[in-house]
Amino acid sequence: YDTFFAKLNIGIDNLPPNKMIIIDEAHNLSSNQISCFPEQFPYRLGLSATPERYNALETQKIVEYFTRGTIEPYRYSIEEAIENNFLSHYQYHPIFVNISEGNFESYQNLTKRLYYLENEDPRDHEKIVDIRTKRSVIIKKANCKIEKLMSLVISKKYEFQNSVIYCGQGKDSETEESIIDAVTKVLAVDGGYSVSQFTSKTTDRVNVLSKFESGYYDVLAAIKCFDEGVDVPKLDKIYIMSSDALNRQTIQRRGRVLRKCIESGKKVANIYDFVVLPPEDITTGLGVRSLVVNE
């Protein structure tokens, strides 16, 4: 995108009129970029797991650029791809974890502020989004997930070989250790697995993927950059310790693990999803319902 808007876009007017533009991962287009697209393309194709963005208006702008608001986008669902034998069947396993009382108290305080903001007239939408983001970060970084992962690894009841673990970004809310470092340590030290990290800071990602495919690495601890544009057909398990609210991320992560693989004989993929619940002894009160519903 950067190259297109910085260099190629300048010479578009000089091209013949009968031209086509194809945009992969079209959901990554920003609102400003969509506005800058030349209208001289009579043929337009945008590809996306789903064009959904946090802002509904941006989503609409993406779709309308390609459809001009006159045709329905072509849709092909994961369910259809599974039924037609293009993708593997999968099993979904929720792993329930109880948040600590300290983390939940912070969640409740933000929920209380959110209630006040949502009942103001007029509403301050920026503040509401900010509080919701801060509240979701508490869940993404909740230390209970690391503790649960450790118990799963030690129990030997869960298999982590040939899997990717999606970690939260930033530091553990209680220990101040990087979450991905904590996850890596649990898998390597407590589980004895060969682990590599796969993040935007990983300089040799092609080499890391190659070693994972060959079996040199048992597990990859990843953040968001493993969501799209990565093709590892032999992958048959993912563990989701942190995720966004966007449906797009859910679809893309399923796409990583549902690839068919004749060589490995993969029949069924498995998705393990860490679902955060309130502390065990708290079943009613402020924040309980919102946490459960959001999760």
- Helical content band: 25-40%
Ends apart, CA distance between termini: 34 Å
DSSP strand (E) fraction? 5-15%
Q: How many strands, what sense, and barrel or not for the largest sheet? A: 6 strands, parallel
Element-level helix/strand string: HEHEHHEHHHEHEHEEHEH
Oligomeric state of the chains present here = single chain
Give the overall pLDDT as a whole number: 87
Structural class: alpha/beta
Shape: globular
Describe this structure in a few short sentences.
The chain is of the alpha/beta class. The protein has helices spanning 2-6, 31-36, 56-67, 78-83, 101-118, 125-140, 144-155, 179-190, 205-214, 247-257, 288-294, and strands at residues 20-23, 43-46, 89-98, 163-166, 195-198, 219-222, 237-240, 268-277. It is built from eleven helices and eight strands.
Provide an overview of this structure.
The structure is a single chain. With 295 residues, the protein is α/β, with parallel strands linked by helices. Helices cover 39% and strands 15% of the residues. It contains eleven helices and eight strands. The strands form two sheets. A six-stranded parallel sheet has the order 3-8-7-4-6-5, with helices on both faces. A two-stranded parallel sheet has the order 1-2. Helix 5 packs antiparallel against helix 6 (125-140) and helix 7 (144-155) runs parallel beside helix 8.
Give the SSE layout.
Elements: H1 2-6, E1 20-23, H2 31-36, E2 43-46, H3 56-67, H4 78-83, E3 89-98, H5 101-118, H6 125-140, H7 144-155, E4 163-166, H8 179-190, E5 195-198, H9 205-214, E6 219-222, E7 237-240, H10 247-257, E8 268-277, H11 288-294
Parallel strand pairs: 1-2, 3-8, 4-6, 4-7, 5-6, 7-8
